[in-house]
Amino acid sequence: MTNSLTLLVSALGSGAVEVVDLTQTLREDSPTIVLPPEFGASAPVRIERISRYDANGPAWYWNNLSFGEHTGTHFDAPVHWFTGRDLPLNTVDTLPVADMIAPACVIDCSAESADPDFLLTIAHVEAWEAKHGRIPARSWVLMRTDWSKRQGAAYANLRDDGAHTPGPDAAVMRWLVDERGILGFGTETIGTDAGQGGHLTPPYPAHHYLHGAGSYGLQCLAALDRLPPTGAVILAAPLKVHEGSGSPLRVLALIPKEG
Amino acid sequence: MAPLQPPRRKDPLKRTPLPLLPPGQRSRAAHHLTAAAAEGRFALPRCAACGTFHFPVREACPDCLSARIEMVEAPEGATVLSQTTAEVPADNYFRERAPWRVGLVKMDAGPTALVHLHPEGIAGSRVRLVLMLDRAEQAVLYAGPEQKGADPMTDPQWREMTADPLHRRVLITDARSFAAPALVKALVEAGAREVRLGLPEAWKPFAAGKLTALPGVSVVPLDLGSERSVADHARDYGGKTEIVINTADHMRPGGALGGSITATRDAMEAVVFGPMRLAQALAPAMIGRGADGPTGAAAWVNLLSVHALAPSPALAGWSAAQAAALAWSHSLRADLAQGGVKLLNLFCGPTDSDWFQTWPQPRVGGSAVATAAVSGLKRGLEEMFVGDVAKDIQARLAANPKAVEREMRQG
């Protein structure tokens, strides 16, 4: 008997569909969002050993793990931003599981993102659509910058006036949400917004518009350079944290094998 | 005596000597001297009834039998009556360090005492007495040159009881501390062989400026909050650290009810758990190298707040974390003592860190911390109060701790 799932399983088995890991390793030295110290700060990732085949556990190895909801490769639920606070099913434990598997459009901004202050505009996306077709509703839009290939200080790129990392401008976020009905927006950098996104109008437009419309965010993604412009399917299932605003997660992409 | 030369590289065929300690048993009363020595004060027991100084500390006045003995600052001068050099001492600690000079002195304060004697001290010469802590952390008398400010550092016997940064390698745990730049400069001036600045969250900008241009100064990633980072640091530098200066802090204002619990936990993490992690990784190697030549492992220094002793209700959570850090430091001191490694706590008043910006002057700047740290190491102290506010609180605590508790409400 053949159905869609057996076809998928067989495609995975034959390699016709490839699984790509879009996740950065959750490490203690993973950069996190930096806010002025007078605000509350996210706890960093901490991995503390309980035992490793030693006196505390002779045959077993395990750790205590702690982190803020918004550390490492992570998911932003609508409730994360004030604009999404009154929406139904706006937390990671209530959001519809069907949304956790969805197609993705990947916009290659890797060349432009050599400029840390590069902002994605409507014109860029229209040019992409001219080549690859209209962005379907309820799909992820992933902004490929190749910034996940950077490490440490070069990745966070903090200066004395804040972070300088590429991201979307305000108009394109409003347009993607209102005109294209996207499911969510994903980036390789820390935050769905640009490093200087707090100085745009409205401040942090990706957070503002995405979550206001019940859409999601994915950030600190990796390996977007391995995805085709269209045709990838994203598996992004955040931890089921009670009233959670987001969580670190493993993000996978299913892609049709080239050739 | 010739100045101390930089240490040669170790002969890998030779075992590192295990640390031996001088005899360490003292009477309970004798610890009145320990308290003075820990702070670098020259105080002697004096009979409150007849005013006679005596030494060592006795339960009653040897002159009038009064039991009212008080510790009083005493004149430091003395005259050497006789001296001898122990060439083959029976005690292993002194045998390894022989020849060892001792002398009998007549103190200007009155008593006669057996002292550790500096190389030029001979019968009839004048000396200045210092009450100091030997490697067993017990108070002993050292007789140095009479002129004040004379540098006794060339005397191996003095060096044995101190933690001079000269030719030693120092770790400053948090490069981002307000005190770090001044500490680096002071340590380099004091002849430290290496000064390593631990940099937490190395992905955040850090302007080392001209510091790393100074000889022996480097910045290394070190996050006391991370087991892995601390363990990795110890793997590289465990056997190459003779002095630790722990500058980690996380001050956030807030009262007992209004203050942030998260901020308090962050403070505990910064000033208690982080240093615990570092000590558990690094201190065993330091203890093992406590007798590794004249520049062996010597000291652990904590930059603490005087609010560890006198909590400020405006800084409730942070004061509690400071108090916890102090309490833990006493246990660390007990462990370090096995190797003759000292622990010095610097108690500061409000500092020049960003979080005391609105606090009234005088505040403690980095250079005051650095001067105190180097001085405390060179004198082998255990406790120092840095700045006028800390000294004032220390005096008020000694006089009336309950009054201090109430007064702290005014900030």
In short:
The complex is a heterodimer of chains A (about 260) and B (about 400). Chain A has about 260 residues and is α/β, with parallel strands linked by helices.
Give the tally of β-strands of chain B: 14
What is the structural class of chain B? alpha/beta
Number of helices of chain A: 5
Distance between the termini of chain B: 51 Å
CATH topology of the largest domain in chain B: Rossmann fold
Pair with the biggest interface: A-B, 19 and 16 residues
Estimate nothing, just give the exact number of structural domains of chain B: 2
Helix coverage percent of chain A: 10-25%
Based on CA inertia axes, which overall geometry of chain B fits?
globular
Q: How is the biggest beta sheet of chain B arranged?
A: 7 strands, parallel
How big is the Rg of chain B? 22 Å
Mean pLDDT of chain B: 95
Proportion in helices of chain B: 25-40%
Approximately what portion of the residues of chain A adopt beta-strand conformation? 25-35%
Oligomer: heterodimer
CATH class of the largest domain in chain B: Alpha Beta
The end-to-end span of chain A amounts to 28 Å
What does this structure look like?
The complex is a heterodimer of chains A (259) and B (411). Chain A is of the alpha/beta class and 259 residues long. The radius of gyration of chain A is 19 Å and the shape is globular. Chain A has helices at 4-14, 122-132, 152-156, 170-178, 205-212, and strands at residues 17-21, 46-54, 57-66, 74-76, 101-108, 119-120, 140-144, 158-159, 162-163, 167-168, 184-187, 216-219, 232-236, 246-248, 251-256. Chain B has ten helices and 14 strands. Chain B has a seven-stranded parallel sheet, sandwiched between helices. A five-stranded mixed barrel of chain B has the order 3-4-5-7-6. In chain B, strand 4 and strand 5 (112-117) form a beta hairpin. The N and C termini of chain B lie far apart (51 Å). The mean pLDDT of chain B is 95. Classes of the chains: A alpha/beta (259), B alpha/beta (411).
